[in-house]
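tool=predict chain=A
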Amino acid sequence: MSDVDAVVAVSVDDKENPRFAQVHLIEGDEMRARFDRAYQARIKAGHSVPKKRRGIWISLYDEEASSPVSRVGAGAGIAHKPIARIPLTEPGLPAEQEKKEAGHAGTDLRPLSISDAKKSLSMFLGVPEESIEIIIRS
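tool=predict ok
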């Protein structure tokens, strides 16, 4: 993450049955600082933190706190309101039924593709699409 200008963090409204994704745009320096604080707090607390390619998790929506240690670095989703709320669609669900269920009659609810996301971010950030890397982790 040392060479990124911005981080796009995406979360869903429900782990088991997601209906919407919220998109947050956060400056790279801020996210590096949050991860550095989280890393240092875990080391100080005696946790085993892998250094190679496996990151640590920090909560988007919990308030940052020094205890428990898992709260150090948290809160970027609170500090940075979503720049988008994207409806997630079920494959094969008729568009009219989908709109009705989502409560957005008359709204285009097509799923967002990686290509669409890169294109939109490219225009929003003023950088070439090939400079944008999207990583999806579960």
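The longest helix spans residues 28-44. The chain is about 30% helix and 15% strand.
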